[in-house]
């Protein structure tokens, strides 16, 4: 099979075990700005194991250098603060058990170190700031625990603002503004994924530092609430922020997405934001599914539960899976790179999209001021 120039360059370095000698690797630096270290073959099951050996091997084989890993409270009846603190402790223990493969990310240099050593840099991130309760000083607690990205809302409304499913276009609340100010002061990334339009615009304007949308699509292409309008995307980019495009069903209307949909949304985001502000936040795993029929049944049941809980977004369907059907498993980033190259994108632009843009964004947020 004919391969692109980038594909030929990247194929060997994407293999597991690359760069274990501690030398600077030739493979591209890849940051998944919202992803998972989970095994989809156990969808909906409580295995008692976080980040199995297979999952870690697959993530390394995919070429992933760092991943924004969701932990802590997202939704449900449990106490958000307690859940979040407990989950941080669990993932700290996972990282301690796998020192040769995983490392916790606190700063931009850690992403580069993980890349150089062939490890997976784990960025602790929240997808809901409900654990702040009514006390913005809790930002300091989570900063001290190593949380580097905090998303203000999930799909529904919370005390900070509106999610994408809120029935009205809820603005950022006064408490939300207080939390944004505190996040900026502690140099934690403010994530506006899942937010409603007005909350997103308000937060981007209120922030004194660039904000991000770690995983989204473009609403100009597919009009689902989970996708962002050009107004939101442009404002984030104009203020020096970052936008990650996901591999989620919201990239197409009522059908299974393919790599062509992912690329269409990446290209639109580049047109709106510029090539220095766009990356990838797949919202998925790099482990392949062994039994698709079994997985599809478990996925359909999860959609039913999410709908019953009122947190299922428009576009979530049992027949629209959480990945591009022709771009999944450990090969997904190599496939994306090859397809972008075939579309005429330069090697430099592709490297930016795969991870360099997020690395640059992290320097604007996490680095100590001069």
Walk me through what this model shows.
This protein is an alpha/beta fold and 370 residues long. The protein has a single domain, classed as TIM Barrel (Alpha-Beta Barrel), CATH 3.20.20.140. The protein is 39% helix and 12% strand. It has 12 helices and 9 strands. Strands 1, 2, 3, 4, 5 and 6 form a 6-stranded parallel sheet that branches. Strand 1, helix 2 and strand 2 form a beta-alpha-beta unit. It is globular, with a radius of gyration of 19 Å. The N terminus is likely disordered. Pfam families: Peptidase_M19.
**Biggest beta sheet summary:** 6 strands, parallel
In CATH terms, what is the fold-level topology? TIM Barrel
Question: Distance between termini?
Answer: 50 Å
Query: DSSP strand (E) fraction?
Result: 5-15%
Q: Please work out how many helical segments DSSP would assign.
A: 12
What overall form do the CA principal axes indicate? Answer: globular
Average pLDDT figure = 91
SSE topology string: HEHEHEHEHEHEHEHEHEHHH
Helix and strand composition category: alpha/beta
Tell me, what is the CATH class? Answer: Alpha Beta
User: How many β-strand runs?
Assistant: 9
The total number of structural domains is 1
CATH superfamily: Metal-dependent hydrolases
- What CATH architecture would you give? Alpha-Beta Barrel
Contiguous runs where pLDDT drops below 50 for at least 5 residues: 1-24
Cα-atom radius of gyration: 19 Å
Helix content bin: 25-40%
């Amino acid at each position: 099979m004919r391969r692109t120039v980038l594909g030929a360059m990247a194929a060997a370095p994407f293999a597991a075990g690359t760069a274990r000698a501690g030398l600077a690797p030739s493979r591209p630096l890849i940051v998944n700005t919202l992803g998972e270290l989970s095994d989809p073959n156990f969808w909906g099951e409580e295995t008692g194991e976080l980040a199995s050996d297979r999952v870690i091997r697959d993530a390394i084989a995919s070429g992933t250098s760092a991943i924004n890993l969701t932990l802590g409270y997202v939704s449900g009846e449990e106490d958000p603060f307690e859940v979040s603190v407990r989950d941080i402790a669990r993932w700290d223990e996972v990282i301690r058990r796998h020192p040769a493969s995983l490392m916790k990310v606190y700063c931009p240099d850690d992403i580069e170190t993980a890349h150089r050593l062939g490890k997976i840099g784990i960025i602790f991130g929240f997808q809901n700031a409900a654990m702040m309760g009514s006390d913005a000083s809790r930002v300091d607690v989570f900063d001290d625990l190593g949380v580097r990205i905090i998303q203000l809302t999930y799909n529904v409304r919370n005390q900070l603002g509106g999610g994408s499913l809120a029935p009205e276009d809820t603005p950022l609340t006064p408490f939300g503004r207080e939390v944004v100010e505190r996040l900026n002061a502690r140099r934690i990334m403010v994530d506006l994924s899942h937010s409603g339009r007005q909350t997103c615009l308000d937060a981007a304007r209120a922030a004194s530092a660039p904000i991000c949308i770690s995983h989204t699509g473009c609403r100009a292409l597919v009009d689902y609430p989970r996708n962002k309008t050009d107004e939101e995307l442009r404002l984030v980019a104009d203020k020096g922020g970052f936008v990650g495009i996901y591999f989620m069903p919201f990239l197409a209307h009522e059908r299974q997405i393919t790599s062509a949909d992912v690329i269409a949304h990446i290209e639109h985001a580049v047109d709106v934001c510029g090539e220095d502000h766009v990356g990838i936040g797949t919202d998925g795993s790099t482990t392949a599914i062994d039994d698709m029929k079994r997985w599809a049944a478990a996925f359909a049941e999860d959609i039913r539960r999410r709908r019953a809980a009122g947190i299922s977004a428009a576009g979530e369907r049992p027949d629209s899976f959480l990945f591009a059907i022709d771009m999944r498993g450990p090969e997904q980033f190599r496939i994306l790179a090859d397809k972008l190259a075939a579309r005429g994108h330069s090697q430099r632009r592709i490297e930016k999209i795969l991870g360099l843009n997020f690395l640059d964004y992290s320097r604007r947020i996490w680095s100590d001021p001069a």
